[in-house]
Every structure is written in C-alpha cells, then in structure tokens.
C-alpha cells in the first residue's frame, strides 16, 4: 500500500509553495504537486513583481492577514537573504470620499499604520511626474512596497525541498476522490493518498472543483522605457495604486533597470479555457489600456518596451474564497484571489499549514467562506 501523506498540495504557485514550506516546518509529511514547474508563466504569479499595500482599499477584514503576511515575507527575506521585498513606499490615490480612499484611510488609522495624507497638489510637488488636481488625495504608506513574486516562490520551493518535502512537478492532478477519511489524488502518472489536501490551483481551479464560483479573467501588464530618471526606484519614486474617476484602477512600480511596469486592475477579458489566454498584443486594448493614466496623470514614461498576459481567478464579489469542501473538511481550498492575492500568499500558506496540522486558527476568516454566495 502506497504511503499516506499528511498533506498534499495541489498547485504550488504562490499560495501552495508557501503552504508546503510552512507545513514542512510543522513536521508534516508533505507532497507538492504542480502541472508545471513553478515559478512559471502559465499561472498568475509571473512578471517578476507584485504590490504589497497595507492600508487596504478592499476593506479592513484583510488587515490581520495582511500584517501577518508582511511579517512572514520579512522573515523569509531575513532567513534566506534573497531579494524578496522592496520597501519603496506605496502611494494610493483616488478622489476624496470614494470607498477606496476611505477604506485605505480607515484601515491605516484603525491599525495604526504609518501614513501621510497628501492633496493632489502636494503629490505633484513631491513627485513632479504625477499630475493630480486637488479633488484627488493621496495616502502614502511608507512601509509598503513590492514583492519579487517569482523569487519568493522559488525560495519557498527550495526551502521545502531542503526540509524533505516530496515535489512532483509536470504532474497535472486530474481528479480528487475519497476513501473514507483519506483523499485520493490522481495524476496521469500516479495515484496519491492524503489525510489533508489543499487545492491552490489558481485560475483553473474549476477543472478540479467545478462548484467554485470563479471566473478566469485574461489580464495584461506592460513595461515602458523610463524616459525620466525621476521615475526610478533609486530616485525615491514609490509604487502606486491609482483609482481614476471612481472607475478605473491602475497600479505600477517604480522604474528599475531601464523600464517601468504598469497595469490596469479593472477591465480584462473573461475566458473559459487556457487556450484563450492569448499573448500580449492579441487585443488592441492590451497596448492602450494604461494610456488614460499616461496621458493625464503620470508623465515621463517612454515607449512601450514589452508586455505579458496573465490571469485573475475572479470571485463574484472580488473577495477571496478560503474554506473547506462541504462534507470533506480535510480538503481546503484557497481561490477567488481576484487579482490581489500575491501579497497574502505567505499568510494563506501558513494558515493552510496550520489547518492541516489541526492547529487552532485564530484569524477570523468568516468573511471569506464559500457559502456567502448561496
Ligand atoms: C496581471 C496581474 C497583476 C497582479 N498584481 C498583483 C499585485 O500587484 N499584488 C497582489 O497582491 N496580487 C497581484 N496579482 C494577483 C496574484 O498574482 C494572484 O492572486 C496570485 O498569484 C494567485 O496565487 P495562486 O497560488 O492562487 O495561483 P498561482 O500562483 O497561479 O498558482 C497556481 C498553481 O496551480 C497549478 N495548477 C493548476 N491546475 C493544476 C492541476 N490540475 N494540477 C496541478 N497543478 C495545477 C499551476 O500550474 C500553478 O503553479 C496580480 C495578478 C495578475 C495576473
């Protein structure tokens, strides 16, 4: 009879790679399965970087997880000396009184995060490349910044391997079944058995769990040449999340190594199959979607250098889905990360490992349950 793992992780990209490492530190016998070899360009984690905002426009319910996530990223960096987190500061901008800006400020106040509130004019005085009128406000988070997502995943996978975790990449899980309390996981090559399972399969989770209310969304980001040195990270330019007219949200990173990466969080194309995630440039909008930002609000950005396509696993309300399968509490899933999940990967992995180890979970996850869609 084949070995029964304590914990099998299906999908070891952002959340799954973290879960594997934290579970290994609890002495669990862990197996990591992935259809590809992470980090890779077929999931939601490529393109080098992801923002980590702390004062959260998406709502206060994220704050306890977020603060723990940052602590774990810091620990990972200290432990490995790898280039994971850049504390560049992060500027949130929106019109005064919008939900986004109110949520950012409320959560900064409630959790005593260091922040500075700036008028549109003050933003433009401090960074001349920004151009905002005084009906916009900025909340500058000094301790936020960005994460090197691919380096972080590689780091978690390396640590897990060193700790003795079994890793089977290029192994697509085809089905999950049950034999009493044991979960049976089938790949094209082999059948595995587990006491606990985490499904962290990203965009295509419905291939394994069809009941998940997740819509895959094709998204792109673009790299532009830096035409003005003041946009660079080493000149003190911050990361940013900007909501224009209470409608379109853009985000970006300070310039580095000659390019500056910019994306639009809103928009994108709903898709139903992997083949529909076509390369950057396939839609005319790919190269145009950040133009409203560049034409009016952010100056000094040069020509388009290159772009990439990616996917969001969009939940109906844009909030995460963190739960266990009804009737099968030993199968956890983390999905619906809706284009803002990377910053949480560390803490979501830690929580999954705690659940697999039957530890008490003190973080309030009630806002993220699947049954809110019933
Ligand atoms: C353009 C873009 C910009 C973003 N910007 C930000 C940002 O600034 N800040 C932020 O916090 N978040 C951001 N995000 C969101 C963030 O990157 C995602 O929420 C996060 O990476 C999702 O993590 P995951 O573990 O769910 O998925 P992934 O990292 O994609 O991992 C899923 C893994 O599951 C594997 N898999 C799938 N199916 C199977 C199967 N059947 N068998 C085995 N393995 C399988 C895949 O190969 C993959 O490795 C952005 C996303 C995109 C696309």
From TrEMBL:
Report the Pfam families cross-referenced here. DAO
Tell me its EC number(s), please.
1.5.3.1
Q: Which Gene3D superfamilies match?
A: D-Amino Acid Oxidase, subunit A, domain 2, FAD/NAD(P)-binding domain
Q: Which UniProt keywords apply?
A: FAD, Flavoprotein, Oxidoreductase
Residue ranges of the TM segments: none
InterPro entries recorded? FAD-dep_OxRdtase (IPR006076), FAD/NAD-bd_sf (IPR036188), MTOX (IPR045170)
List the cofactors: FAD
Say which domain of life the source belongs to: Bacteria
Asked if the keyword Ion transport belongs to this entry, the reply reads no
Ranges for the FAD dependent oxidoreductase domain? Answer: 6-354
Any one GO molecular-function label of the UniProt entry: sarcosine oxidase activity
Q: Which NCBIfam families match?
A: PRK11259.1
UniProt-recorded name of the protein: Glycine/D-amino acid oxidase (Deaminating) (DadA)
